[in-house]
Amino acid sequence: MPATSKAKPAPAGRGRRAVRASGDERERAILETAERLLEERPLSEISVDDLARGAGISRPTFYFYFPSKDAVVLTIIDRLVAAAAGSREEALATMAEGELRAALRQALTDLYGAFRSRRAVTLAAAELRMRNPEARELWSQVMEGWVADVTAVIEAERARGAAPAGQPARDLAIALVQMNERVQYAAFTGESPSLDEERVIDVLVDIWLRAIYGTAEPS
Amino acid sequence: MPATSKAKPAPAGRGRRAVRASGDERERAILETAERLLEERPLSEISVDDLARGAGISRPTFYFYFPSKDAVVLTIIDRLVAAAAGSREEALATMAEGELRAALRQALTDLYGAFRSRRAVTLAAAELRMRNPEARELWSQVMEGWVADVTAVIEAERARGAAPAGQPARDLAIALVQMNERVQYAAFTGESPSLDEERVIDVLVDIWLRAIYGTAEPS
DNA sequence: AACTTTATCAACACTGTGTCGAGTTGGTCA
DNA sequence: TGACCAACTCGACACAGTGTTGATAAAGTT
Question: pTM for this one?
Fold first, then answer.
């Protein structure tokens, strides 16, 4: 049973423990080592041994603190996701009261910033999602949160006559949110083709506005 | 040196060989086994041993035909990508002469169909891209091809006055193409949130048209 | 019939994961 | 204070997977 709870005193949700003693700083050391190594190379090229050594402990001792490498990264992603959720709520609060164009830009900028400031972790999350159901579930919740909020905004704009009818609001929201995810990911990795980091927001905001407020009639 | 050419007679590009004898059918058996197993489970859960046994040979013999598991999948992806490129050129030919709305829908439908009909391979490609530079490069070329074509279409539409000015055509094309990739991937995996398979095309076409022909002015 | 090429696989070397059990250490309370 | 317990540590092991080596067989080629 990989990547599931199984630590010695193991009570908590994922794989982290609830210890209090000096082990607390060991746990932190492991998390910090993981973040540091992720700046250098992808998750797939980091071993449990790398994490243990980086934290100054032996490999078996690592397993006292985390049930697997994945659990470490999941813990780190948890925190990133929580921060991003904060950005989102804040941004949405602004958006609730008119001046949508500027508010939308602000919202996308904040979210983009939240992930860009932890680029390495964001990339690791994408990698982990490919093979870890728990990571998939966590990311899924993040996306659902965004989609729900964006859906509400679109429906409100349509209700007050500011936006024309069109595809179901939720479908539109899903596509737009997924576009953001992919475009941002590409910009972070620098793959080609990808948008320049400074152009990401301009392009995304433009497409969002056109998708929400425009109609689909060519000349 | 994993995933690079290294087979016995090894001349060709990647890791496939140029054998002619009875080994030809072994090679095909390996490729077929890979495709079959990918329908059942992700690439990360398929071992070289699985492929060898599936093809009725021992593991060392597998290495006579392919230098690694990745090389097998790369060969399969190559073919998918070639087929998709065919769809694209065909679709673009239609698009070159007016009636853009219908032509665009047709183009996106064909492309979507090309990948949906080989869903398992498409998903494996996404997984492999995460950790294999060669897969990344291959996919990159596919995306660049699309972006180049779409950029040309947008510029042509702007030149003939059918589409308004806006973000640089290439930037717009990158975001739209990446949106398609992500939305399609999500629909294939059935993750949540994701668009229903029957709704994908409608939603994407709508956003493309609005992004290309609309303006970004809210009411 | 010598020789080469193609094909095959048992056995090996290596890397990485996760577990077991035998410790050590520091605090607590009888 | 000393018996005890929980937190903590790690050497040694069992396993799974990858890729290589070398010996061998079977099919052409000259």
Answer: 0.91
